[in-house]
User: What shape does this take?
Amino acid sequence: MKKEDKTKIIESLVEQLNANNKIYLADCSSLTVEKINQFRKSCFEKKVSLTVVKNSLLKKALERAADSRLTELIPVLKGATAVMFTEVGSTPAKLIKAFRAKNDKPVLKGAYVEDNIYIGDKELDALANIKSKNELIADVVALLQSPAKRVIGALQAHAEKKDAA
Assistant: This one.
């Protein structure tokens, strides 16, 4: 690969790293071409961008990224690395868990989600349980509606008692 090509790849990775705050690094090695294509398809369906990159290029991109905390992911860059970018923090973790129900890979190497660094496959469950912004808003709205619903229910019950009497 020519130096110009490597530079373009690094610049592209830096742009993606700076534009996303939900980044996953996974090991997809030893998956057959058919299996990796199935995984790519499931990622595409869930709007997760998946790219396999050389560790040396990714290391340089992580070093050049705007957020210096991304450099904490450098130690996990061993073996083949797939980079996943997403809008919803838990989606890649859920995809990995679902795919691993039938396969031994992909294995989570590390992730950067909502300003937090997660290292190792043991963090997969924690990442899968992260709620999206919309889910959190729905929870807050439900909590706010709960007391109002109880008051309305009590008033309606009281009105029905008066009508019955």
About this structure: The chain has two domains: 3-130, 131-165. Residues 131-165 form one domain. The radius of gyration is 22 Å.
